[in-house]
């Protein structure tokens, strides 16, 4: 069972690649989904977040107030580190559980972990292949403005808050250039799938 890490910066086209691989038959495990699941109301992770950052980061319905928490940690490396120390171990444990479940269901499955913070948190895990969705920061800025309605300053701030494109490329086994057309991105992804289907991960 090949275990593939798929990463990329905000608006890099990573989700498009993940969806295409899923169409081909890959089991896609979404790190963002796991983060939401481990922070569900009543969870130990949410209780620890509230204890660390204050009950006001919990909404009246018991859900995490992501905006309030974001305001508390954004731009504060020390606070972000404390948050990550709570969340990352729980996400890692749950992702490992889902990888194992996929392997038990189909030992030949190709499992793709769609993970934005690979460089920051999971780069040393035993991946068979690391795939990076790559597009210039200027192009990603345009996508955030055009497709997500962000103003330009906010788009730049979000891109700047992430690890650099250079650091992602340094750890990549495969780079999918998403700066071109959608068809071009899908063509590269289809090529990756053919490689994975042939058992090629080196």
From TrEMBL:
ATP binds at residues 11-16. It comes from Microbacterium azadirachtae. One of its GO terms (molecular function) is dephospho-CoA kinase activity. This is Dephospho-CoA kinase. Keywords: ATP-binding, Coenzyme A biosynthesis, Cytoplasm, Kinase, Nucleotide-binding, Transferase. NCBIfam families: dephospho-CoA kinase (TIGR00152), PRK03333.1 (NF002879). Coiled coil: none annotated. One of its GO terms (cellular component) is cytoplasm. It is an enzyme of class 2 (transferase). Pathway: Cofactor biosynthesis; coenzyme A biosynthesis; CoA from (R)-pantothenate: step 5/5.
């Amino acid at each position: 069972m090949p275990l593939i890490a798929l990463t990329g910066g905000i608006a890099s086209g990573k989700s498009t690649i993940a969806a295409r691989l899923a169409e081909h038959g890959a089991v896609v495990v979404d790190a963002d989904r796991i983060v939401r699941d481990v922070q569900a109301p009543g969870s130990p992770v949410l209780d620890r977040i509230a204890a660390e950052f204050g009950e006001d980061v919990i909404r009246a319905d018991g859900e995490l107030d992501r905006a309030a928490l974001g305001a508390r940690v954004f731009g504060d490396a020390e606070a972000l580190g404390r948050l990550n120390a709570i969340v990352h171990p729980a996400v890692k444990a749950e992702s490992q559980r889902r990888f194992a479940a996929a392997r038990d269901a189909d030992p030949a499955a190709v499992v793709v972990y769609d993970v934005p913070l690979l460089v920051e948190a999971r780069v040393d895990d035993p991946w068979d292949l690391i795939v990076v969705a790559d597009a210039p920061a200027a192009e990603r800025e345009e996508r955030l403005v055009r497709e997500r309605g962000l103003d330009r300053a906010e788009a730049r701030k979000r891109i700047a808050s992430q690890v650099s494109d250079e650091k992602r490329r340094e750890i990549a086994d495969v780079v999918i250039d998403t700066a071109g057309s959608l068809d071009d991105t899908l063509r590269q992804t289809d090529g990756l799938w053919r490689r994975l289907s042939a058992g090629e991960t080196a």
